[in-house]
Specification:
Layout: E1 2-5, H1 8-19, E2 27-31, H2 38-49, E3 63-68, E4 71-77, H3 88-94, E5 97-102, E6 117-124, E7 131-136
Parallel strand pairs: 2-5, 2-6, 4-5
Antiparallel strand pairs: 1-7, 3-4, 6-7
Helix pairs in contact: 1-2
Length: about 140
């Protein structure tokens, strides 16, 4: 499914659909070049879900954890990680949590599979005014 994002209302349409998927043991993989809006989208999504803390980029700490509506939410930035990193350290944290992973192609996540993962790729238009969002999911009831 492809979405054209021109403003905050367009993001909110995607957020309404993804919020239904925010459950334990589910993953949201966010791909896109630097500056396309992965963390900005995550901030909007988590605020709409009820996270009260300041949502920040986990670029330097690798993983931030938030709590809302009785659910643990992990937000990982795997940009600086690679396949050789010991992901077993994180796998345990992903159990019973909703997990947002930026730069998922840099790591292997054992708990993720097509039935519990939404893949979202964000690209910018040539003039940097419009974001093109491609979403893949086996759960077509959401989209």
């Amino acid at each position: 499914m492809q979405y054209i994002i021109k403003n905050i209302q367009d993001w909110n349409e995607i957020i309404k659909k993804i919020k239904k998927f925010i459950k334990p043991n589910n993953f949201l993989f966010l791909s896109g070049e630097l500056g396309t809006g992965k963390t900005a989208f995550t901030k909007l999504l988590l605020k709409s879900f009820g996270v009260e803390n300041n949502v920040t980029s986990p670029s330097f700490v690798i993983l931030n954890t938030y709590f809302a509506n009785g659910l643990t939410i992990n937000h990982m930035d795997a940009y600086r990680l690679n396949f050789n990193e010991d992901m077993a350290l994180y796998d345990e944290l992903f159990d019973s949590s909703f997990n947002i992973i930026e730069w998922p192609d840099n790591v292997v996540i054992n708990n993720a599979n097509p039935k519990n993962t939404i893949k979202m790729k964000i690209t910018l238009s040539e003039d940097n005014e419009i974001r093109i969002v491609n979403i893949e999911s086996t759960d077509f009831e959401i989209f």
